[in-house]
Structure formats: structure tokens, C-alpha cells
Automatic annotation (TrEMBL):
<dbReference type="InterPro" id="IPR013746">
    <property type="entry name" value="HMG_CoA_synt_C_dom"/>
</dbReference>
<dbReference type="InterPro" id="IPR013528">
    <property type="entry name" value="HMG_CoA_synth_N"/>
</dbReference>
<dbReference type="GO" id="GO:0004421">
    <property type="term" value="F:hydroxymethylglutaryl-CoA synthase activity"/>
</dbReference>
<keyword id="KW-0414">Isoprene biosynthesis</keyword>
<dbReference type="GO" id="GO:0006084">
    <property type="term" value="P:acetyl-CoA metabolic process"/>
</dbReference>
<keyword id="KW-0012">Acyltransferase</keyword>
<comment type="similarity">
    <text>Belongs to the thiolase-like superfamily. HMG-CoA synthase family.</text>
</comment>
<feature type="domain" description="Hydroxymethylglutaryl-coenzyme A synthase N-terminal">
    <location>
        <begin position="4"/>
        <end position="175"/>
    </location>
</feature>
<protein>
    <submittedName>
        <fullName>Hydroxymethylglutaryl-CoA synthase</fullName>
    </submittedName>
</protein>
<keyword id="KW-0808">Transferase</keyword>
<feature type="domain" description="Hydroxymethylglutaryl-coenzyme A synthase C-terminal">
    <location>
        <begin position="195"/>
        <end position="408"/>
    </location>
</feature>
<dbReference type="GO" id="GO:0010142">
    <property type="term" value="P:farnesyl diphosphate biosynthetic process, mevalonate pathway"/>
</dbReference>
<dbReference type="Pfam" id="PF08540">
    <property type="entry name" value="HMG_CoA_synt_C"/>
</dbReference>
<dbReference type="InterPro" id="IPR053544">
    <property type="entry name" value="HMG-CoA_Synthase-like"/>
</dbReference>
<dbReference type="Pfam" id="PF01154">
    <property type="entry name" value="HMG_CoA_synt_N"/>
</dbReference>
<dbReference type="InterPro" id="IPR016039">
    <property type="entry name" value="Thiolase-like"/>
</dbReference>
Amino acid sequence: MAEVGIDGIEIRTGKLKLDLPGTFAPAQGDDPEKFTKGLGLYTSSLPDVYEDIVTMAANASHRLLDRKDLSLSDIGRIDVATESAFDKSKPVSTYVAGCLEQVFEDDLHHANKGERKFACVAGTQALDDAYNWIRAGRNQGRKALVIATDTALYERDDPGESTQGAGAVAMLIDENPDLVAFSDAQGYGSADETDFLKPNQQFPSVDGKRSMQVYLARMREAMEDFERNGGDTHPDNFALIPFHTPFPGMVRRAAALGFRHCIRGTEVEEEVADEIGHQPRETEFDSHDAFLEAQKEYTETLTETNMYEEWYAETIEPTLAISRYVGNWYTGSVHIARAAGLQEALEDGRDLTGRQLLVGSYGSGAQAEIHAEAIQPGWEDEISQLNIDEQVENRRDITFDEYEQIHDVHNHDESIEMDPLTTPDGEFVFDGWGRMGERKYSYVE
């Protein structure tokens, strides 16, 4: 059976830029290093007045289908993953399909359309659905379009406000893919949690400290489940490890715990033991708390070794190159990390064909998924066609007053009006409300 995976990818970022240390920090009375050194963030991407989850998704999809020379009849399935949906019945995928039908000659009337929700892990779940659909032979030779799109906005003065971001990642799933092929081995960690949720509200309710703890706990469970299902987590197996990235500082913590877990009982642990000793084993301690404290101390010491620093610089750091400048995209964040890592590898001249990625996805509420992907021979050509760096560079820098207005505009309030800060050009735009309160879209040449 042919391999199935991601054949193509496109990214669309919001067209506005909020400078965190230069604009946001002074206005909030915060130390700029709280964001740059603490969170690992420098700027956020925000949507202009005429941008939203539909326009970003449709614009990314349009460019993807165009450059892959596909027609709409080639697509048999559209799944949109989002936690920023504005309708509790009509899925975002139908709006995206309506946009695409404005610019292509054929239609998507025979494509299955849906919407996936499980916080940030929903994008990976949609990839799983597409993979299973194709492997089952129900695609009838057609491809799946999976889109992760979000406006990750928080209530004003919420601790998560500085991690905001907006954008979409469109991925084409097919047999004999050009980018990465999915493996069968998966691992899950899932539990009923209330660390982050939106109970009938636009902005989330977040228990920040609890959410970080849940993230790490579910990731550990998913790693253990991945190993039970045949996955080999030896650190040498993976060229890159893209994590869900709410902010890069969170990934620093996850990576340290992940590396400690992966080297446990291997020759790598033995090698580093000459410098810092072996990992603590719980049987060596009188109490669980004492074991946890020793484990924490070991992990901190481990991250200061040359071995860990070199592994992190090569395997983790490249995956953060985009998120540092666009913020958290919820469902899209791990898929930005994948693209960023591969783009950095291409620029550095690393030959990754045949190497593996270990992808760590997470969604609050809470579920983590770990799976492996094999990098395909066409990856360099595919990644070279991304224009995300150009988009990031061309964003319009906004003042704090403009930021406050934009934040209000995207609260789904029809009564708030604001003139656009940029000019649309060759893209889908939000252009008003319909008779039943629906959002309407058009294509601007």
C-alpha cells in the first residue's frame, strides 16, 4: 500500500504586527524581557479588519491548490480544525469551500466537509481522519484538504494576552506525498481537564499554571503510549521534534522532560552519567516527593550539559523560528513548528530525506498525541515554495491604540466599526453580514 502523508503545505499569517517588547510591554508596564527571554516571543500576528479564520484558511488553500496545479474536483474532503469558530452549526469548511468556488471553475459539491474541535490538537486529529479515509480506500483517488485556522485572542489584561496570534495552515493529504509520510505508530495521553475552555464565550478561561502542568503530563502519557505501540523514542532517531507551541518557553520545558525520558536506560544516559550521574529511580527514595525533587534537579542539570544543548539546538530550536514572531495559532501551532524546522534545515543545507520527525501535538481539555513522520524526497522543493518569511516581513506594525481597536473588532461584535489598516490585494476578504447574521466573503483582485 502506498504511503500517505502531507503532500503540500501553505501558511497564511495575519497582516498586522504587534511588537511585544517595543509596543506591548511599555503600554502594559511590563519588562520587555518578560516576553523575549521568558516566553520566547518577539512579535504577534493579528488579523486586519477584513481578515478572519475563513479568509486566512481560504487564502492559504487557494495558494496551495494553485501551485500544486489542482482543481476542486481533485479534493474529496475538507476538514477545518479551529477553536475560533463563529457558528455552532455551520462548519467553517463550508465557508472556505464557498470562497474557493469563487476563483476555481469547478466546485466542491461532492467533497465531504467537516469541522474538528479539541482545542489545539484538533489539527492533528484532522490529519489522522484524512489519513484513515485514504488508507481505507474511500477517497476514490481524491485528496484531502486539512486546514488549521485560528485567531488566538485573549481577554484584555489576561496573562495569555501576550501569546496571541492569528493564522492558518493548509495541508494537502495524499498518497505518495512530497513532504512527509505518516507512520502507523501513535501514542495518546488524554484526561478530562478544565485547564483552558470557552464555555459559550469568545475569549478563553485559562488556568495558566494548571494548563502547563496538564500539557506536560499528557505529553508524558502520549510518549509512553507511543512506545507501547511500537514507537522507538531514542533521541538519535529524529532529525526534528515539532511540539505544540503556545509559546517557545513552554517548549523549552517540554523538550527537557522529553529528552530525559528518551535517554532513560540508553547508552546516552550512560554517556552523560560520567558528567552528572544517572537519572533518579523512584525505588531509591523514601517518598514520592523526594523522588520528584531529585528528578527536577537532575533535569535542570541535564539541560546544562553540552550533549543536551547540542541536541536542543539541532532538533528543537529550528522548529521555533516562525512562532517567535507570530505567536500562538492554537490548532496551527504544531504545524507551524514542523514547517519552521524543515525550512531552517533547508536553509542550513541539511539533507533530511528519509529522516524522521517526532510530532508532539496537544489540546487543552486535554489530549496529547505523539506520532512519527518520515521526510520524503520532495521535501526541499515543497518547503522552498513557502513565502511565510515574506509575509512576516511585510506585516504592518501597529500602535497600542490600534491594537486595542483591532482586539475589539475581532470579538464578533457587529456594532464595532474600524477602517482597515492595510489594503487587500489578490485575496479573500470578509465583506459584511448577511440577512441571517452570517459572515460574507468575496475575492479582491
